[in-house]
Amino acid sequence: MIRPGICSVTFRHLPIEEIPAVVAPAGLECIEWAGDVHVPPGDEATARRARELTEAAGLAVASYGSYLRFEGTEEEVRAEGAAVLAAARALGAPRIRVWATRVPSTEASSEQRTEAARRIAEFADRAAEHGIEVGLEFHGGTLTDEIGSTLRLLEEIDRENVRSYWQPHQDMPTAEALETLRQVLPRTSTIHVFSWWPGSQRHPLAEREDLWRGAFEILAAEGSDRDALLEFIPGDDPAVLPREAETLRTLLTGAREAIR
């Protein structure tokens, strides 16, 4: 099953009380709560409040969208990791999204890669004690900025509870983007869904229907449970969410039917 949902960062201008009230009527099922604006690391009271609001609206917490990058001293990394884990536990999140440093893969030394892999593995071990999965953001300017480096990093980390997110890289043509998805299966847990082209110009999801139809058919054929989360919509406008959510649900239904 591919579960349709949304990242709360889509509406970073809204307070947490308003987000489930916007998301539930749109027919989505889950929320990834953002750690940079809605649920700060270490703020367990806000995390519990977000969980209560989510569940009261009939939705599920998909994940905690942290901005943990494993940079700084060992003490700083451990302290930040502990704060992120505390928020995730209070939120009831089954997964924490993290970032694989701020260093592009082509610029990283072997020592930087080794240190990043070790730190992520150590954090994943702490998360595993609470039954929480770790997801690597698949993003430019990090060690997961291209598929080869991502797969290599997953092997270097070598933890069963560490998987990858996936999204189309900026300006990457559809066929190339879909090939990156094929390569990372089945190590992908979560899909960030948006329609950018060219650059970061935001369009209705339907304008890149070929990309998303192909992506969801690949995922449906593989068969694992995953979350497909709307991340950016035109204008960050709650008024267009019902349209975008309907497009997402239609694409997911079409993917299931296509593989029957």
Describe the structure.
The chain is built from eight helices and eight strands, in the order βαβαβαβαβαβαβαβα. By secondary structure, the protein is of the alpha/beta class. The chain has an eight-stranded parallel beta barrel, surrounded by six helices. Helix 4 (110-128) packs across helix 5 (147-157). The two termini are 14 Å apart.
Please describe the structure with a list of short key phrases separated by commas or semicolons.
260 residues, alpha/beta, 8 helices, globular
Quick overview:
The protein is α/β, with parallel strands linked by helices. Helix content is 42%, strand content 16%.
Annotate the secondary structure layout.
Blueprint: E1 2-7, H1 19-23, E2 30-34, H2 44-56, E3 60-65, H3 74-91, E4 95-98, H4 110-128, E5 133-136, H5 147-157, E6 162-166, H6 174-184, E7 188-193, H7 209-222, E8 226-230, H8 241-258
Parallel strand pairs: 1-2, 1-8, 2-3, 3-4, 4-5, 5-6, 6-7, 7-8
